[in-house]
Design goal:
alpha/beta, eight-stranded mixed beta sheet, four-stranded mixed beta sheet
């Protein structure tokens, strides 16, 4: 890759790849953070570009756990990790949510690398009608941590196409005990997300503007990236 967060690393140029030549605000923000030696959870791993960035940023003493439930994306993610020979990344073919079980992932056959959980975007009825449905396993992050199968997170990135609040509800104990920094691309209802985080004593910033977000700012935002600590 010649540009972006994972510049200098290798990736498989699969279907749907679109190269970018400039860093966006969110990528520039992440490049300015120190991840060395930390444990990063990458929720919504896609094909692994962020996982590759985090794997390099945390160094040999850090760890990356990436979650990707879309079967096609998961295989490409594994391939990209193998291409770069990273040994500090664990990739799990799971979705995270507020309950454990199975849900339907809606995938557009013309853009199979993108998908969303059916219950997360009920308004997309037309898109569902002409899309494919893939059943995926959902588990809560709290239950995974209780099984002691994962290290404690220092930083959690969430990009789950409208399922953000469900993911957060499934990690309430993780947030309480470990207090990880959060980087969230949100597509869900802004008031609910902000209230959830403020109620857990997180300070929230809009990544693009750098402004601190309070309950009074909720109405003016409907999409973007949040940094919370």
């Amino acid at each position: 890759m010649r540009t972006g967060l994972a510049k200098g690393l290798r990736r498989y140029y699969g279907f749907g790849f679109r190269p970018k030549f400039l860093l966006n605000d969110e990528e520039g923000f992440l490049l300015g953070l120190d991840f060395y030696g930390q444990t990063v959870f990458d929720i919504g791993g896609y094909i692994g570009v962020y996982a590759l960035f985090f794997a390099r940023a945390v160094g040999s003493s850090g760890r990356v756990i990436t979650f990707e439930p879309n079967p096609a994306n998961y295989q490409e993610l594994l391939h990209n990790l193998q291409l770069n020979k990273f040994s500090n990344v664990t990739a799990l073919p799971l979705g995270l949510g507020r309950h454990c079980g199975q849900v339907d992932l809606i995938i557009n056959p013309l853009y199979p690398s993108r998908g969303f959980v059916a219950e997360a975007q009920p308004q997309n009825a037309i898109q569902k009608k002409y899309s494919q449905t893939v059943p995926i396993k959902i588990i809560t992050l709290d239950s995974l941590m209780q099984s002691k199968s994962l290290p404690s997170p220092d930083f959690i990135k969430i990009d789950v196409e409208g399922f953000e609040l469900d993911v957060l509800h499934g990690m309430t104990e993780v947030l309480h005990v470990y207090k990880p920094r959060l980087f969230i691309e949100f597509h869900c209802k802004m008031p609910d997300l902000i209230c959830f985080l403020l109620n857990r004593e997180y300070t929230i910033y809009c990544v693009k503007s750098g402004n601190k977000i309070t309950r009074q700012h909720i109405a003016i935002m409907n999409w973007g990236h949040l940094f919370c600590e």
